[in-house]
């Protein structure tokens, strides 16, 4: 009970969902569906963007 009370008073951090997987497996489609369903923001970066 004390733990729940402490959690209720704690600052809530935003939920972060990371979608990972191989090329052509539907990651972007899933991310779009999740973003629309939960009102989230989508940040897209592939290895070519990160490594160049």
Short summary of the structure?
The protein has helices at 2-9, 27-38, 47-51. The chain is mainly α.
Question: Could you name the key traits of this structure?
Answer:
48% helix, 52 residues, mainly alpha, P-loop_NTPase, 3 helices, single chain
Provide a descriptive summary of the structure in words.
The chain is mainly α and 52 residues long. Helix content is 48%, strand content 0%. The protein is built from 3 helices and no strands. 0% of the residues are buried.
Bulk shape: elongated
Number of strands: 0
Query: Biggest β-sheet, characterized?
Result: none
Low-confidence segments, given as residue ranges, are none
Strand percent estimate:
under 5%
- CA radius of gyration: 16 Å
Structural class: mainly alpha
H/E element sequence:
HHH
Number of helices: 3
Q: Portion of residues in helices?
A: 40-55%
Mean pLDDT: 82
Oligomeric description of these chains: single chain
Distance between the termini: 50 Å
List the helices and strands and how they pair.
Blueprint: H1 2-9, H2 27-38, H3 47-51
Organism: Pseudonaja textilis
InterPro entries: P-loop_NTPase
Protein name: tRNA isopentenyltransferase 1
